[in-house]
Amino acid sequence: MFVDEVDILVEAGHGGAGCMSFRREKFIPRGGPDGGDGGKGGSVYAVASPHINTLVSFRFNREFHARRGGHGEGSNRTGKDAPDIELEVPVGTLIYQKSEDPADAPVRIGDLVEAGQRVLLAQGGIGGRGNARFVSSTNRAPRRCEDGIPGETRQLQLHLKLLADVGLVGFPNAGKSTLISRISAARPKIAAYPFTTLVPNLGVVSLSGNRSFVVADVPGLIEGAHEGRGLGDRFLKHLDRTKVLVHLVDVSGETGRNPIEDFETIQRELTAFSAELAAKPQIVAATKMDAVGDRAVVDALEAHVTSHDLPFLRISAVTGERLPELQEAVWKYLTPIAEAESRHREAEVVARRVGGQTVDSAEAEGRSGKVKVVARRAGGRTVDSAEAERRNGEAEVVARRAGARRGTKR
User: Fold this and answer.
1) What is residue 198's DSSP assignment?
2) pLDDT, average across residues 11-33
C-alpha cells in the first residue's frame, strides 16, 4: 500500500520533578539539603531512512509519546534522562506543523532529502531543580523544589515527495510503465487498459561510464485532472523535485484521440497544477511507433512540438527503438543541472558567516575556536565575541598589574 500523506500527533516527555530531601546520617547533625534534580524528558525526532518508501506505517499508528524523565532523589541523585524517539520516514518527506486555527496554513518545519537526515519534532522538557539548588547564605535549609517542564506536543502533517531526476507524464496507457520497465529494473503493473498505474513507481536507469539517474512514473492524467477527474493530479507533487520531464504521447491511433490535442491537454494540466512544474525542461517522445498506422500524424505532432522549442523523439518501448537515444538526451539535460547544484552546495559549505563577513570554512573554524577559548576564559560562560575579547583584555591587564606588584615586593 502506497501512502504519501498522514496526520500524526507527537508528544515529548515531561521533565522529571526535583526532589526535596535532607541528609539524615548518624553523627552528622544538620546534614543539609540533598535533593537531586529531575531528569530530562525524551524528545521526538524524524529520521530519513533509505529502506522505506511509503508512510503506511503511520496510517494505523498516529500517536507517538516519549517517556518522561525520572524524578530526582535524595543524596543529590539526579533523575534518569528519558530516551529519545526516532521516527523513520522515507527520504523526501516534508513535515508541517498544523496551526491551532484551521484557517491558518501549516508551517513547514523539516524537509528530509538525504538518508540519515534528522529533524526535531518535539523537544523534551527539562527536569526540575531539587532543593539542594536553592541553598544560599541566608537560607541554609530550603524547602523548595521544582516540577519538570512539560514536553512539547505537536499536531503534524507528513507529505512524501519522491526523489527522482526524471518524471514521466502523459495520458493513461501512453506507455509510461512499459518504458520504465525497459530502461530500469522496475516492474510496474502493465496492462492494455487505462489507469493500470495507481501509485508512483521509481526506477534507476544505468548508463555507460557509471552514469545513472532515477525515473518516476506517476499515474496518467486526463483532461480536467486538476478538478479531480480520473485519479486527479495529486500524484504530480511527486514530480516537484524532478529536473526533467519526459512527456509521452501515444501516436498509435488506438485511442482515437488526436496526439496534438493530447499534448496540449497535458500541458494545460501541468500548468493548472503548478507553473514551476510546467516550466521544467521537457522532452517529448512519440510512443508506440511499432503500431503507428499513419506517419503523417507523427510528422504533424513533431512540427507542433518543435514550434514550442521542445526536443522530439520517436520511440517504441516494446521494440526498444531509439531508447538509448532517449536516455542520452535526458542525461544531457541532467548534467548541467547537477553541476550547478554541486557548485551551489559547495558554496554553502564554504561560505560561513562569522561576524557578518563571508570567509572560507578553515578560517571560520579558526575564528570560532578562538572565540570559544576567549569566552571560556571570560568567566566560564559563553558570551558574544566582542564581550569575550573585552573581558580577556581586562584579565590580561589585571595579570600584568599583579605581576608588577609581586616584583615590587621582592
Assistant:
1) -
2) 91
% helix, strand, coil for the chain, step of 5: 30, 25, 45
Q: Closest Cα to residue 270, out of 180, 181, 167, 175? A: 167
Amino acid symbol at 305: V
Q: What is the predicted pLDDT for the residue at 369?
A: 47
pLDDT, residue 83, reads 96
CA dihedral 130→131→136→141, nearest 10 degrees, is -160
Higher pLDDT, 263 or 226: 263
Phi–psi pair at 151, nearest 5 degrees: -75, 160
CA nearest 180: which of 222, 146, 213?
213
Question: What distance in Å separates the CA atoms of residue 125 and residue 150, rounded to the nearest whole number?
Answer: 5
Contact status, residue 104 vs residue 80, Cβ threshold 8 Å: no
173 close to 250: Cβ distance less than 8 angstroms: yes
- Which residues, at least 6 apart from 222, have a Cβ–Cβ distance to it below 8 Å? 171, 172, 229, 230, 265
pLDDT tens digits, 34-51: 999 999 999 999 999 999
Question: How far from 17 is each of 66, 100, 127, 128, 249, CA to CA, in Å?
Answer: 16, 29, 6, 5, 66
Alpha-carbon distance of 139 to 134, in angstroms, equals 8
